[in-house]
Amino acid sequence: MASIKPSVPKGTRDFSPAEMAKRNFIFDTIKGVFRKYGYQQIETPAMEKLSTLTGKYGDEGDKLIFKILNNGDFLADGGINESNITADSKRLLPLIAEKALRYDLTVPFARYVVMHQNEIAFPFKRFQVQPVWRADRPQKGRYREFYQCDADVVGSDSLLNEAEFVMIYDEALSKLGLKDFTIKINNRKILSGIAQVIDKNDNIIDLTVAIDKLDKIGLDGVIKELLEKGFTTHDIEQLKPIILLEGTNDAKLASLRDALSESPTGLKGCDEVESVLNYIANCPLRTAKLELDITLARGLNYYTGAIFEVKTNEVAMGSIGGGGRYDDLTGMFGLKGLTGVGISFGADRIYDVMEELKLFPETAGETTRVLICCFDAEGEKYALPLLKRLRDNNISSELYPAGAKIKKQLDYANGKQIPYTIVIGSDEMRSGLLAFKDMNSGVQEKLSAEEIIKRLK
């Protein structure tokens, strides 16, 4: 039988032990901050009913859902015939696939809340770190399997939640070592107000899609796109001072209030942003710059209030986080009127930023702290009680099986980046003073087991 060259499906990847250690450093840091703010972890199945997911992401999103074929020989189970097979795929699909891999964490979360509404304490603060799958075309930085790292609170319309998400971004990214990043905030109501003022309510999507590209295509590009979408030169003259707002957040809000004085919706959006800024003024941020940016739109169909995006200023990179408020997350499953707000961390992008800036601590890739090396079976027998003592003191330790040359054992330590070794020979067993070596500096000392444990703790 011909051997098969091993490979992974396109758009997926393996993670080495060193990569996993770094990824876990990111996830553990973010999870620790979520828990500190009262968020509880849940998990949902990798697969959902296809009917749960379909119609929640638009036509394009539906095409990117990975469908799972029904169990067994579905062709032999009846229901499939020549007319089905020649029919369009939408009619055939429910007959051969009733389940699908989850596309995101938000829709499964909404399903979870509706199913468990009688046992949940509202407001419900949950976080979730799990993989999702999308049948996208793989390319650099875009995978078919990737992790999402979400936190949401549902059942509360308080703007304290928005302010706490700003604090969570600030604390988590500061702990990961980022030193210069901006949390951008906007509000859907402000964008609606701008559309109202220039009498373009029906064109709000065209308007926001265009101004959202200001960073990429510049003002001239935005104007060109708006003109192509039917906006007049008069509309654009009204928009220009709003799009090009400058100054402090307070100055921008004052200008917006003037520009949106005829729009109650727009003014409500200004009030909401001001409330979030006031909360933050009472809890100053460690590192982040908080910036009102009215060109920020993200998934406008989805958001109804605050909109967030996080960008690092240290590396050329897209957003490393984002989110916002939505008014009817659970309405799609029959539980109406439950408002929510949520954010997501872009863990893969954060990983790339930290790699480029060399922010991972040396210990992030460290799995074993000390390796015990011995010459023979007698040394191995002597080492076992020491190994147990080290582990009882929460020092991750390994004993290399006796029989290999000491050089091979030390090479193993170097290969795994184990920072310390203990070598046990006949002299060490006789005296009780063990050869303890710092593998980075090369310094070797003779220490007792108690002294080694004290040093490693």
Explain what the structure shows:
- The protein is an alpha+beta fold.
- It has a domain at 366-456: Rossmann fold (3-Layer(aba) Sandwich).
- 42% of the residues lie in helices and 18% in strands.
- An eight-stranded mixed β-sheet has the order 1-5-6-11-10-9-7-8. The protein has a five-stranded mixed β-sheet with strand order 13-12-14-15-16, with helices on both faces.
- The mean pLDDT is 90.
Helicity range: 40-55%
- The largest beta-sheet arranges its strands as 1-5-6-11-10-9-7-8
Stretches where pLDDT is under 50 for at least 5 consecutive residues are none
Average pLDDT, rounded to a whole number, is 90
Q: What is the 3D form?
A: elongated
CATH architecture classification of the domain at 366-456: 3-Layer(aba) Sandwich
Protein structure class: alpha+beta
CATH class assignment of the domain at 366-456: Alpha Beta
Instruction: Sketch the major β-sheet.
Output: 8 strands, mixed
Radius of gyration: 28 Å
Number of strands: 16
Percent in strands: 15-25%
Distance from first to last alpha carbon: 54 Å
List its salient traits.
single chain; 457 residues; alpha+beta; Rossmann fold; 8-stranded mixed β-sheet; 18 helices; elongated
